[in-house]
């Protein structure tokens, strides 16, 4: 039976610039099983998990429910699981690392903006935080989110500076969420380490992102939102007296 440390090594090794690991984000055990049958790893999306549990994004769901959701996903699949845990639900680094390990996750996303206010965290404070999480669990695959393109200055130089600092602090990958598509290649070159970019409906395909030097492609809550839109259309058919099975 593969150990947690071995799963972490597998996940870390998948982050190859130019040949990215593609992670269609999940929100429960059922969606995780679908993805795990086709991809080498599974990633949760906090916005999708929150929506499935009836909470708002931005640490709107209680930590207990967040980690319970991660645990259900990890129990359902055999592949490595990385969890989007937002800003860490106000847990100290050691406790956060322990909760992730207890839930069966071998990786996590951590944001550098305050969920409640959307204000950017001071760079030195975030570097200290990431370093402490790394020290608490040397095996954990850390994906450090860079929020300057959604909550900050939108300045690429600041984004690169934060990304480099996070990698130096022990992050395995950096995630400049909201980075404009026409700056992806430049960002990857400047950072010089694994970069995660989200595939959006109007953005480059996962294969095209690989060509730009990306090491990890994620979808956030995108797939869940597509499925919910399809569900809404089917429910409309039922509401109008029709059968959703005959479309």
TrEMBL record:
Q: Which residues form a coiled coil?
A: none
Please give the name of this protein. Answer: Isocitrate lyase/phosphoenolpyruvate mutase family protein
Q: Does the keyword Lyase apply?
A: yes
Quote the InterPro entries the UniProt record gives: ICL/PEPM, Pyrv/PenolPyrv_kinase-like_dom, Pyrv_kinase-like_dom_sf
Organism equals: Saccharothrix mutabilis subsp. mutabilis
| One MF term in the entry's GO annotations | lyase activity
Q: Which UniProt keywords apply?
A: Lyase
């Amino acid at each position: 039976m593969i150990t947690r440390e071995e799963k972490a090594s597998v996940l870390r090794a998948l982050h190859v610039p130019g040949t990215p690991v593609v992670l269609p984000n999940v929100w429960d055990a059922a969606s995780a099983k679908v993805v795990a049958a086709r991809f080498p790893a599974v990633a949760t999306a906090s916005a999708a998990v929150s929506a499935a549990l009836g909470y708002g994004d931005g640490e709107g769901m209680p930590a207990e429910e967040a980690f319970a959701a991660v645990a259900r996903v990890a129990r359902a699949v055999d592949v490595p699981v990385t969890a989007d845990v937002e800003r860490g639900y106000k847990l100290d680094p050691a406790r956060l690392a322990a909760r992730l390990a207890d839930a069966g996750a071998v990786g996590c996303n951590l944001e550098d903006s305050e969920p409640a206010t959307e204000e950017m965290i001071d760079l030195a404070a975030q570097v200290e935080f990431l370093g402490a999480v790394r020290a608490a669990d040397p095996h954990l695959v850390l994906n450090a989110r860079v929020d300057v393109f959604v909550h900050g200055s939108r300045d690429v130089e600041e984004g690169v500076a934060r990304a480099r600092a996070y990698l130096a602090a022990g992050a395995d990958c950096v995630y400049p969420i909201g980075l404009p598509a026409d700056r992806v290649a430049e960002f990857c070159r400047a950072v010089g380490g694994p970069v995660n970019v989200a595939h959006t409906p109007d953005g480059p395909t996962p294969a095209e992102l690989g060509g730009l030097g990306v090491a990890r492609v994620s979808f956030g809550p995108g797939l869940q939102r597509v499925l919910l839109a399809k569900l809404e259309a089917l429910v409309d058919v039922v509401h109008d007296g029709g059968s959703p099975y005959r479309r």
